[in-house]
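Archive entry: two folds, one per protein. Generate the first.
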Amino acid sequence: MKQTKGSSPVSKETAEETEVPDPRPVCKYGAGCYRKNPDHQKQYKHPRESSDVMSPPLMGKKVKLEDSNDSDLFIEAASEEIDLVIKEADAQVLATVEQDDTEGTTHHNKACIKYEQLLPSDNGCTVVKKRFFVELSEACLQFWDFCLETNKDSPCSALKELGMELVGPFQVLAAVKKEKIPIDEISHNCMEHRYYFDPPEVTTVIQMDTLKGSHVGYYTDHPLTQPNFIVLCPNKENCVVKPIGDNLFQAVIQMHQNSDSALMKSLKEFATNRKIDLVPTAFKHRQKRVVADTFHGVGIVVPYDPVTELGYRPLNLTNTQLKTLLSQATTATDGKKRADKLDKLQELITCVQFANDEGDPGMGLELGLDLLCNGNKLFTSNILHLLTVAYELLDREQYKWVIEQQMNAR
């Protein structure tokens, strides 16, 4: 046999005999691991093929999971069977959204998907990114590890004694790991556990008081990226979102800072051992990039050039003045008075259209979110128009899809 320069005729058997075994334990996510932390890479090995962990990554043609209008992400798929599962999932994503009046949330009918059929080498991060438009961070995966260690049989209920249930993305992770959670009860996209006042930027990850509607969510300015910070939505009756940390460790510790339970001690010890940052800084840093305050309390961030002043222009009403105008429009008993107030709102919307044409989409995003926070169905068509255009101009197409579903549910 012809040999290339520098090669040596080493047999397969000899190579196997001389291979030095790797003493490190195998990462539970195998080749599908998304973690980039150097300490994690040193601590665990990530074999390309390991029958002890999971199947190797499927390689083959690229298949689009959803319509191009929803996402431009691609993943590798290998067979027509996987292709068929994905197509069926697409059809389910477009299922009718209905409003749950008792819970104050929206959800899809018959829209559950058996995730274990999708990419056996994937730890669930790809599915989460596709269905919830958020990228799971290292801290999020560490938090999931804690929940798995705390309650292996039902990790989503690991914080039950604190009155917390993990939902949304974590239910997907549980399904992919084939935990004992009924597949039919697992949400598969960001419309599940979405409350009436939730802006598209919020993804619910912890459900608390279902009667009051309090929940914890990721707040992500731009879809398909890691969350900017964690927010608490105290109840379903208003739009206020309260920043409570950079990661879920910080959030849970802040909400239960007076607790000396064994679970809280375990959580703090786990975070310390894993070198998880417990000092919140993300929201403070983000404040430097906020171009406008909004009714929900955390403001908006859009690309803005301070030299050319392109990207955002302020409304010609203060928040107080805008709240007064909207209140007068919704409470007016006289048709003429209501029409007068709506005419003033239309003047603002016309200004937004000029701003959009001149490269300032932030103005429409601000007004649209403020109308969403007002909550009155009188403004549904205005919200839909303002936010779909703003998200499209800001290259946040996924949030455009979310607001369309949300307004259809009102």
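Generate the second and append.
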Amino acid sequence: SKMGKKLQPLRKILAQDKHASSSTASSGYSSLGKRQSATSESDDQKGAKATKKKSANAVDWKSLEKQQELDAAESEDGSDDEDTDEGSEEGGGISLDGNLEHVMEDYTFEFNDMREEYSEGICTMLRKFIANPTEAYNLATVITAQTIVGTVVNCEGGQDSFAFATVLPCRKVEKVAPVTSILNSLSACLEKSLRTKANEELQLLKDCLPSQAAGSASTTSAPSGGAARTGLLLHKRFTNLPIQLVGALHRNLEEDISWAQQQASDEDDELALDESESSTSSASKSKKSASARPSNFFAEVRNVLLLCECAVPTEGKSAYALGDSTCHSVLGSCSDVVFACFEDEVYLQHASAAVLFRPPKQHCLTDLVALLVPVSKLKTCVNGICELIPE
């Protein structure tokens, strides 16, 4: 019994241990089941997530493709718009949907006698003819100093010059070095050609040039012979000058020359009358009256010399090969010479002599045609110019 009492606690312990082990085992099995269920559940979740991810990826690709299609469509629309804009620009400009307003402005042009304040504008128009700006201004001051003959086109109330035309005695333009150099170059070309072959036209032109233009040391002596009766006709204008004014400009110049000739003739008659009335006066008084007599150059002028800016086409073969000291007669109409001003072609048709030559480049930037036109032909030339101008 004592032994039984001692064994009971042991049985209880064993029973408790057996119960504990069974409970531990059952708990182990239950936890394993939980783990397995959790594992299976996690696998299901992974599968669901994978499915969801796949479906999400499928949605992204579709949206991306759709976005790409939209972008492509927009780019095509933009290119079409650019093509349309380019086409409209090439076709005549961009349409402003009626916002463009045409504003018409009226300008009134005046034909005035020469004044000193017109020198700047005339100098600007001479820059292609005279390369040196200082010398161009010197020639402009010589032009504006002569008021008896010469016309300037201005806007009403302004001093800006848009065109001018004048005739100067050779002794006045000889004060400008580039003009003297150009005349010297022309004279040298004529002399070289005349040594090779006699030509009446070239000889006539050479006789009308100042004597020192052939290269003599003196540059201050007054011209003699035909040069004393030859004036230098200068006319320049801006390219965008209304063409209707061109004829009026040359008409004014021709009328100025006629008026100056008439004035000189009237002054000669008055001077002759005064001399006849004062025949008993002293010689000193006669000498004084003679010195006070105004210049009668325009009463004696017989020819005008034009130095016309021109160009000879370089493409293809040209009949005129220009070089140093070479010149070519272009009397009559010549298709190989392109004049800067169309009115020079009319003067060419009525010229007594016409020579194409190349002046020194340091003084003149273009080739020139020297035209010798009789004063008696000026009115005919002006009529021809006006006929070419549309009304």
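Annotation attached to the second fold: Residues 2-91 form the longest helix (90 residues). The beta strands are 109-112, 151-155, 161-169, 230-237, 303-311, 327-329, 338-339, 353-357, 367-374.
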